[in-house]
Each structure stands twice: as C-alpha cells, then as structure tokens.
Design goal:
about 290 residues, alpha/beta, 2-enoyl-CoA Hydratase, Chain A, domain 1, Lyase 2-enoyl-coa Hydratase, Chain  A, domain 2, 3-stranded mixed β-sheet, 9 strands, about 45% helix
Length: about 290
C-alpha cells in the first residue's frame, strides 16, 4: 500500500509508524485508519522487526477525529436501524471505516474476537507496540495510545478523552481499556470531564510509563525500543503479550494452566536455549524468535 497520511520507516529492528498530517495535528481519518492498520500488520509480519513505535509528525500525536469527517457524519445522519445492519456496521458507515468481518483477511492471527475489533487488533499483534506521545492525544488519538502496549510521553504531551465535550460517548472500547490502565475512579473522571491532562499528571495516574524532556524524547523512546529489540527474546515478548491480554478474560487457575503449557513450549524453543547460552557465555544474545 502507498501511504498518504502516515510514514513508515524501519531501522535497528524497530518499525516506526508516524501519523503524518502535521498541519492538522494528525487528526484521524478513515484513510489514516486503513494505512495504520496496513503498516501495523506489515511490521508484525516482518521477521526483521521486533518492536513497533506509533508516533505523530510535528507537534502533535493525534488530536482526535478530523472535525470535517465528524461534521459530515453528523450531517448525513445515523443509518436506519431497520436496515438490518449491526451497530458495528452502522458506525463503520458513519466513520468510513470497515468492519472487522470485512478486514478479516488482514488479521490472520488466531485470536479471540475481543482483539479483532476496529482498533483492538493492536493487542493481537505479536510484537510490542510503543506509543510515543509527542504532543496532544485526544479522543481517537487517546484511544490509539491506550491500545498500544506501552506509552511514553514528551513533556509537551497533553491528553483528553474529549468525547463528552462533543456530545459523544466512550468510543471504541475506551470504557474497557482506560479503567484497566488508570483505575476506575480516574477513568470515570477523565471520561466525564474530558479535561486536559498534562504529561506529569498522566505519569502520576499511570496513563504513561515515562516522561522525557522535549529535546531527548525520541532518543529516549528509541533507546528503550533498541533494548527490547536487542536483549529480549521476540518469542517471549509475543507469548507474554498474548498471555497478559487473554488473562483479562480468564480466572487465575486458567491463567496458571496456560502459563504451564507455554512454559513447556518455551523449554523446547531456540530462544530458550540461546537465553541460557548467552548468559553463561557472557555475550549479547542472538535470539531468532523461534
């Protein structure tokens, strides 16, 4: 796919997906949604990529849905409930995006239905995804950051759910994601007020993992990504990511059973053998992901 609204680069086993509408603070469009999805699957399927970064060009991460698109959606009206379409299909008509059923061919991974939705597919990809929030992340921008596995922020980053101030609701599963990241009280307050939260407050409530000074932001994010890409088994990362997200729907006993099964598989893997060998030989690991 030729990209119009994002940029895709690869270096040091790290793929960087950059939202690229800087003049509009990278406001989200249906085109951008399609291109991000394509780029994410491209990185996931590339054996040379071990870590994925999602960031924004210019001074913003993503300011939310493009207001022109939102205005058009309001003007055209909600598709008729008697049309036989599901709520998911009707929202897809309004937003110009495709349903998961239509996108199934792009999602070959055998994962539960919860992680095959419009944006939750990020959690099914077998590689760690880091949101490098370099500026405002509001509405859909915040949703995308939440669906990433880790979130790092520049000091200039600002966060807002935005929805209540547009007469909207907790969109695209944010009602599930946000409480799991910041806790129920913080989630409710952020959703109700839609107020703007700065980077330091976001760090205190656990919305982001680390805040970097402006001048060292991408340097810090890339240093962390390189550490994962160099010193950590990609096989372990993929399995652990699946374990953690699936465990949100499991009992403790079920999670323990899965852990035992995966432990047996890991003992037979090349990465486990290399993990022991490089430690004993005191050298940098050469993991293959197998």
């Amino acid at each position: 796919m030729e990209y119009r609204e994002i940029a895709y680069t690869k270096a040091d086993r790290i793929a960087t997906v950059t939202l690229n509408r800087p003049g509009r603070l990278n406001a989200w469009t249906s085109v951008m949604a399609e291109e991000v999805r394509d780029a994410m699957h491209r990185a996931a399927d590339d054996d040379e990529v071990r870590v994925i970064i999602l960031t924004g060009a210019g001074r913003g991460f993503c300011s939310g849905a493009d207001m022109g698109d939102l205005e058009s959606a309001v003007a055209q009206g909600v598709p008729d409930a008697d049309s036989g379409k599901t709520a998911e299909e009707r929202v897809s008509v309004l937003t110009g995006t495709r349903t998961e059923e239509e996108l199934e061919s792009k999602n070959p991974h055998n994962v539960r239905a919860d992680f095959r939705k419009r944006y939750s597919y990020l959690q099914a990809l077998p590689k760690p995804i880091i949101a490098a929030v370099n500026g405002p992340a509001a509405g859909l921008g915040l949703v995308m950051a939440l669906y990433c596995d880790l979130r790092f922020a520049a000091e200039s980053a600002r966060f807002s759910t935005a929805f209540s101030r547009r007469g909207l609701v907790a969109e695209h599963g944010i009602s599930w994601m946000l409480p799991r990241i910041v806790g129920l009280p913080h989630a409710l307050e952020l959703l109700f007020s839609a107020r703007v939260v700065d980077a330091e407050e976001a760090l205190r409530m656990g919305l982001v993992h680390k805040v970097f000074p402006e001048e060292r932001f991408m340097e810090g994010v890339l240093a962390y990504a390189r550490e994962l890409a160099t010193f950590v088994s990609p096989r372990s990362l993929g399995v652990m990511k699946q374990q953690v997200y699936n465990a949100q729907f499991q009992t403790l006993a079920e999670a323990c059973l899965v852990a035992d099964e995966e432990l047996l598989r890991s003992f037979e893997s090349e990465d486990c053998k290399e993990g022991v060998a490089h430690f004993i030989e005191k050298r940098t690991p050469e993991f293959t992901g197998k």
